[in-house]
Write a structure and sequence with these properties.
about 325 residues; 10-stranded mixed beta sheet; aspartic-type endopeptidase activity; alpha+beta; 2 domains
Length: about 325
């Protein structure tokens, strides 16, 4: 077998540099490029030295860990034991994730008829798995693995931040109550213009059984005042919640002023894990005919004036008072 040490060095230099930058991205750090280059060069030199020097201890577990520790220290510094351990574990997590992705993609693309054809038994009784991959395919698979890892990390971070704003909402009307998950929108400043009561949003589908037939679907495209006018002109028994209905003017982004159908509940209880719930009577609940969350994470948008404090970055509001 012919091994080109310069290619080994350059390949590992690029891989180690990418892994280190991905580690920095995952930990939200911005190290100097010179430190990343120095650390990647250390890792590449270690990989090349394994082919140049006949020193069995270079292959040992302790040697590999020491080199990894040196690489993390060169790239990010020390900064305390807890910070360093987190960086070290993240560095290995990125390594395992990207290498696993490369192996998975390579075996996915192989045309071997049976997996036994690529296995052989060593003299020591172990099983060796043959693995060959062209440099271009390796680079593409590695880049794809890094991209997938960064995408998954960013998605997990967005989910974590969103969870900080998600609360449990219970609405009580008479003897009935409805519970759902709500998102606290710290940028929402929608109030009833006459009473200055804060207005929170909720999917109309939550109230499907108590709303007049067809209203859940009609709210998506019809004006709310037309629906209320139909109730006023309908003969027969009046709607049980007729005295609770309100029309609240609002203005969405890039739209004219519209009227929103709202209900006056008896109380709204809001809380989240680890905190005692709080109950409010001065609140209106606006009806939305669509889906407030594409993935169903929450079914309500909670007004920030309902007493819950959050030390987090404000979310953008989708509506404002008329």
């Amino acid at each position: 077998m012919v091994v080109y040490v310069d290619l080994v060095f350059l390949t590992n230099l690029a891989i180690d540099g990418t892994v280190l930058m991905t580690t920095a991205k995952a930990r939200k750090l911005q190290p100097k490029r010179s430190r990343i280059a120095l650390s990647a060069g250390l890792g590449a030199a270690y990989a090349a030295a394994m082919f140049l020097a006949d020193a069995p201890y270079l292959y040992s577990f302790a040697a590999k860990v020491l080199v990894s520790v040196a690489m993390v220290f060169c790239a990010f510094g020390y900064g305390g034991p807890l910070r360093f351990v987190r960086l070290f574990l993240t560095f290995y997590l990125v390594n395992f994730a990207t290498l696993g992705g490369v192996l998975g993609i390579s075996f996915l693309l192989r045309q071997s008829g049976t997996p036994w054809a690529d296995m052989s038994v060593t003299s020591g009784g172990g099983v060796a798995l043959e693995w060959q991959m062209q440099l271009g395919l390796f680079a593409a698979a590695f880049g794809l693995s890094v991209w997938l890892f960064r995408g998954a990390s960013a998605s997990a971070e967005r989910t974590r931040r969103l969870d900080a704003f998600v609360v449990n909402v219970t609405v009580t009307v008479g003897e009935d109550s409805w519970s759902c998950r709500g998102l606290v929108d710290t940028g929402n400043r929608l109030y009833d213009p006459l009473t200055r009561i804060p207005v929170m949003m909720m999917e109309a589908s939550v109230w499907r059984e108590r709303l007049p037939a067809g209203w859940t679907e009609r709210l998506r495209g019809e004006a709310a005042d037309r629906l209320v006018a139909e109730l006023d002109g309908a003969a027969g028994e009046p709607y049980a919640w007729g005295d609770r209905l309100r029309l609240v003017p609002y203005r969405g982004m890039g739209t004219d002023t519209r009227l929103m159908l709202a209900i006056k509940p008896d109380s709204v209880t809001i809380g989240r894990e680890g905190e005692p719930p709080r109950s409010y009577q001065r609140v209106l609940i606006g009806m939305d005919g669509g889906k407030l969350s594409p993935d169903g994470t929450y079914q309500a948008i909670v007004h920030p004036d309902l007493g819950l404090g959050f030390d987090a970055e404000p979310l953008k509001s989708s509506s404002r008072p008329a």
